[in-house]
């Protein structure tokens, strides 16, 4: 029970990696707040955790909306008393659109969810972590946040920004008992592709060029195990860094 007595907020937790993270954290003793736009699926995840003897709360929310972020943390504190762990998992893709075809609307939408959302949840979590000088943040970045053309220009830039935010928070708050790390998954079986409509042919062709050297696609549960390590005291000396989990894809 590596997270016994802890309260964890996980965004985008109704499916995919977020769901696996929430379920594993609950199995390890954490009380989990499951945040997602799809409240029906979030409730199903919470019910599944409860049926296995865990504690979970589903909260509908959009990390791109400040009021929803406030409501999410208010609900967590009201129900469980505090927050100890934040996992910024919510994210969307960008239709593989290259820079030459980008619109302001697409750029703003991708950044609102992938970058501004984690900034807002981090800001709110820090308001809880700093007074008690304890807390852990785990950001879900991407191999696209370390290298180029795993997706379109907006997604790639947004995930690079998440890596930078991770480094900044990790270093600046290190002496206050707060750690912040990120995970850079490679290809993982999730439904994030559902956020893509009519992929850009040129951008998709360029992005897919490297898939031939990808050893394999991962399972959400494999990313959850990395998140558990980073959220637990087992990683007490790991801070401000990004852990790549991609079966060796980016090692080539």
Query: Radius of gyration, Cα only, in angstroms?
Result: 17 Å
Q: What form results from the Cα inertia axes?
A: globular
Distance between the termini: 36 Å
- Poorly predicted runs: none
Please state the structural category.
alpha/beta
Major β-sheet profile: 7 strands, parallel
Order of helices and strands: EHEHEHEHEHEHHE
Provide the β-strand percentage band. Answer: 15-25%
Mean pLDDT: 97
Number of distinct helices: 7
Strand order across the largest sheet = 3-2-1-4-5-6-7
Provide the helix percentage. Answer: 40-55%
Number of strands: 7
Structure description:
The radius of gyration is 17 Å and the shape is globular. It has helices at 16-27, 39-51, 66-80, 104-132, 153-172, 201-207, 220-231, and strands at 7-11, 31-36, 55-60, 85-88, 135-140, 178-185, 242-245. The protein has a 7-stranded parallel β-sheet, with helices on both faces. It has 252 residues and is of the alpha/beta class.
Record the SSE blueprint.
Layout: E1 7-11, H1 16-27, E2 31-36, H2 39-51, E3 55-60, H3 66-80, E4 85-88, H4 104-132, E5 135-140, H5 153-172, E6 178-185, H6 201-207, H7 220-231, E7 242-245
Parallel strand pairs: 1-2, 1-4, 2-3, 4-5, 5-6, 6-7
Helix pairs in contact: 1-2, 1-7, 3-4, 4-5
């Amino acid at each position: 029970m590596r997270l016994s007595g802890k309260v964890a907020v996980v965004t985008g937790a109704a499916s995919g990696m977020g769901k696996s993270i929430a379920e594993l954290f609950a199995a390890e003793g954490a009380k989990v707040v499951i945040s997602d736009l799809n409240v029906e699926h979030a409730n199903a995840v919470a019910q599944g955790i409860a049926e296995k003897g865990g504690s979970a709360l589903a909260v509908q929310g959009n990390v791109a909306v400040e009021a929803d972020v406030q409501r999410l943390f208010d609900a967590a504190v009201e129900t469980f008393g505090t927050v100890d762990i934040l996992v910024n998992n919510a994210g969307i893709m960008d239709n593989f659109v290259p820079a030459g075809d980008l619109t302001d609307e697409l750029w703003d939408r991708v950044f609102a969810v992938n970058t501004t959302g984690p900034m807002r949840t981090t800001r709110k979590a820090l308001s809880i972590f700093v007074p008690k000088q304890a807390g852990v943040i785990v950001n879900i970045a991407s191999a696209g946040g370390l290298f180029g053309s795993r997706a379109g220009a907006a997604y790639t830039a947004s995930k690079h920004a998440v890596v930078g935010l991770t480094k900044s928070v990790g270093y600046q708050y290190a002496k206050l008992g707060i750690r912040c790390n990120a995970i850079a998954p490679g290809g993982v079986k999730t439904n994030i592709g559902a956020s893509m409509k009519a992929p850009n042919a040129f951008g998709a062709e360029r992005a897919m060029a490297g898939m031939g050297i990808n050893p394999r696609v991962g399972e959400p549960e494999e990313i959850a195990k990395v998140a558990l390590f980073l959220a637990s005291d087992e990683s007490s000396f790991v801070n401000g860094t990004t852990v790549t989990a991609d079966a060796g894809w980016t090692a080539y």
